[in-house]
Design goal:
The chain is α+β, with helices and mostly antiparallel strands. It has helices at 8-19, 25-32, 36-48, 81-93, 118-130, and strands at 68-76, 97-102, 109-115, 135-142. Helix 1 packs across helix 2. The protein is elongated and about 55 Å long.
Length: 156
């Protein structure tokens, strides 16, 4: 999948969609100076080329009873491809894991985990870390405040 050359109109459309993906083509067109049909064609191209990966609803964790967020640094026992792939699949399958990064440094993975309470987090750590012989060590930080959360990218 090749990334298309993005011009200022594409970037303006992307900025509108990042702010609210439900914005209709007519409104975007009025903001960027294109017809609704031209906006729709560009959005279709941006989706097909993979620039737009997914469009989702952003939910409030607190409104859903998921009031605790944890940042977890995970060190694996060994870094073989099979061990890493198994852990990746395990993380991808767990709904409490919101984000996972394979990183350099002392830890191998950094996870952002959202749970309803400490009891749920303890159960999560048992199944994800304590029951996993490939996890050497993990360190947890509890988020005290959601200062900034998002996936918007700088488009300058």
């Amino acid at each position: 999948m090749l990334t298309p050359d993005l011009d200022r109109l594409d970037l303006a459309i992307l900025a509108c969609l990042q702010a609210d993906s439900r914005t209709i083509a007519e409104v975007i067109g009025a903001k960027v100076g294109l017809s609704a049909a031209a906006v729709q064609r560009r959005i279709k191209r941006l989706r097909e080329s993979g620039v737009i990966e997914k469009e989702v609803a952003v939910l409030s964790p607190r409104a859903l009873g998921l009031s605790m967020t944890f940042v977890v640094m995970v060190e694996m026992e060994r870094e073989t491809l099979s061990v890493l792939d198994v852990f990746r699949r395990q993380v991808q399958a767990d709904d409490y894991v919101q984000q996972c990064y394979y990183v350099t440094g002392q830890a191998d993975f950094v996870l952002v985990v959202t749970c309803p309470d400490m009891t749920a987090f303890e159960a999560f750590t048992r199944r994800m870390f304590f029951d996993n012989p490939n996890v050497r060590h993990f360190t947890t930080s509890v988020a005290m405040d959601r200062v900034k959360v998002g996936l918007t990218l700088p488009l300058a």
